[in-house]
Design goal:
Elements (H helix, E strand, L loop, with lengths): L18 E5 L6 H17 L3 E5 L2 H4 L1 H7 L7 E6 L1 H8 L11 E10 L1 E6 L7 H10 L5 E4 L5 H13 L4 E4 L6 H9 L5 E5 H9 L3 E6 L26 E8 L4 H15 L2 H9 L2 E3 L4 H20 L4 E2 L1
């Protein structure tokens, strides 16, 4: 944690200059699209430029690493997925500490993953996946965008809830999600869980079969697809969520201004319409609630992984 925050003089009318939102997955992805909408809203509120920068290198660690080393003044911020919290206990070689080098500022949105199977896997429903998992214990394979990513932890949560064991085949880099989806579609792995927007093109082309969505309610993007809970795993609810983080040491007044104004942006009527059209929802947490949520999600991921007997290839 930085110890130079006390030397900073932060004007009461923060921000007084451009603010940068750094995201780790590249242009056109879910984080990038969301960050640009939030940036536009904040720019309008503040009368200052708010820009989005894509830094997808290092298996999605380049952007957090950059923000962790930035001055803790509120002008360089991280927009990331739930994977940021999960990696705190699941990835041991990070060049930063996801919990201690950052301040969780604001929850942004949550939305569903879609559980998919490759067409050649011969699995058409959640019930069939569970049955195959029991009949062929340790033989089914699932893909993810990397160890500790949301696409990994979500499937492990399902395996734990359904009592099945499978072989995990992670990608070599967490920003290789499109390549990982393509491998599932080609039959290199049997099933996976991915953000709907990323998997949708291959769902439309019939290369993937949508088995269920990961949230308690159906998604507006795939209204015909049942929830995993409806389809055979009662109570299952595992969304992908997005948040905003600042470098550790950022002064409290700046953090509270950010949290307040992000909330104002997310609750604007036109933004609510955008959320609905993208199958997302506002998480409705204040700064303190989000901070507790991030730590709880990190611990939850560790429990899921530690209690699920998955084989890694």
């Amino acid at each position: 944690m930085r110890d130079d925050a006390s030397a900073l003089w932060i004007k009461a009318d923060y921000p007084t200059g451009p603010v940068r939102l750094i995201e780790p997955f590249g242009a056109g992805g879910g984080v990038d699209v969301l960050a640009r909408v939030v940036a536009e809203k904040l720019s309008g509120l503040w009368g200052q430029p708010v820009t989005v920068e894509n830094h997808p290198g290092g298996g999605s660690t380049a952007a957090p690493g950059m923000v962790a080393q930035s001055p803790p003044d509120g002008y360089t911020l991280l927009v990331n997925t739930s994977a940021h919290a999960y990696s705190a206990t699941l990835v041991t070689d990070l060049p930063y500490d996801p919990l201690h080098d950052f301040i969780p500022v604001a929850a942004l949105t949550g939305q569903a993953y879609v559980l998919v199977a490759g067409r050649t896997a011969g699995i058409g429903t959640v019930a069939e996946l569970i049955a195959a998992g029991h009949a062929r214990s340790g033989e089914l394979t699932f893909a993810s965008a990397g160890v500790g990513t949301g696409t990994h932890v979500a499937v492990e949560a399902l395996s734990r809830a359904a009592g099945i064991t499978a072989v995990h085949r992670p990608a070599s880099a967490a920003d290789a999600i499109s390549d990982t989806i393509a491998k599932t579609a080609a039959g290199d792995t049997d099933y996976a869980m991915f953000p709907i927007a990323t998997a949708e093109p291959l769902l439309r082309s019939d290369d993937l079969v949508a088995l269920g969505v990961s949230t308690a309610r159906r998604s507006a993007l795939l209204p015909q697809v049942p929830t995993i809970a409806e389809a055979g795993v009662p109570g299952f609810d595992f969304p992908i969520w997005y948040g905003l983080w600042a470098p550790a040491g950022t002064p409290d007044p700046v953090v509270h201004t950010l949290a307040r104004d992000v909330s104002r942006a997310l609750t604007a009527p036109d933004f609510q319409g955008w959320l609905t059209s993208h199958g997302a929802h506002h998480m409705g947490m204040d700064h303190a609630e989000f901070a507790r949520f991030v730590h709880a999600e990190s611990e939850r991921a560790a429990h899921i992984i530690n209690d699920t007997p998955t084989t890694l290839e």
